[in-house]
Please model this.
Amino acid sequence: MSAHLLIDAGNTRIKAAWLEPGPPAAPGAIHHLDHNGLAAALTDWLGAARPAPGFHVWISNVAGAAFAQRLTAALAPWRAELHWPRPSATFDRLHNEYERPEQLGVDRWLGLLGALAHARRQQADAALPPVLLAHFGTATTIDAVVGQRFIGGLILPGYSLMLEALVNGTAALPLATGQQQAFPRNTHDAIVSGVAAAQAGAVLRQRARLMHEFGQAPLLFVAGGAWPVLAGELRTQLDQAGSTSPLQVVDNPVLDGLARVATLSHPFSF
Model:
């Protein structure tokens, strides 16, 4: 059986996991790596894991070409076979209706494959409701799938970027460290509450659009490093909107999507 390593390289964090054989094949425990000192950290981690040379590595990279070169060099001593999946028009029954399917961000595409894998374990394809995936990372993305068709989504600055934008774009506003409040009465609380409300409000907007257009509440999946900060605000807004279907937190839908790509691309090795 061949070993398969999954790597999700974001703008801020790098997440890695070994693919655990299934069914369903799924990522194992997630290991976090820093962009700084990547080669040494990866060498230490792989040295402890002792994979056989020639294992497969499946990579989602939105960190740029320089990172791809550094990762390739760091893995070279292991003679690993590297795979860089790219979005396609159709894969694993997900129909990508982006105007140019190949231009959809690879992390968004893989995240949708991962979210759909979770949804399919809950309901049969024929009864699958719309799926909404909100990923709160460096950027926030909110993507919708209806009838296994990716119909589009939003990209907005993530929680931290919104806070930093107010610092960089104004003369007097601070980098806020306040508390989320319904009616803030100081500047720090006002900024933090406003940014959280904007993030949650974007999710509510897409949920309402799906319900209006398709007459059914979506399965809502949430993920990302900023999720713990936004959880209270989003849950409050959902409750006030009358939502009766619980949101579902997934550790890393991108790694889940990479697991699907690896499994379907190399079924002989599982």
Summary: The longest strand covers residues 149-157. The chain has a mean pLDDT of 94. The radius of gyration is 20 Å.
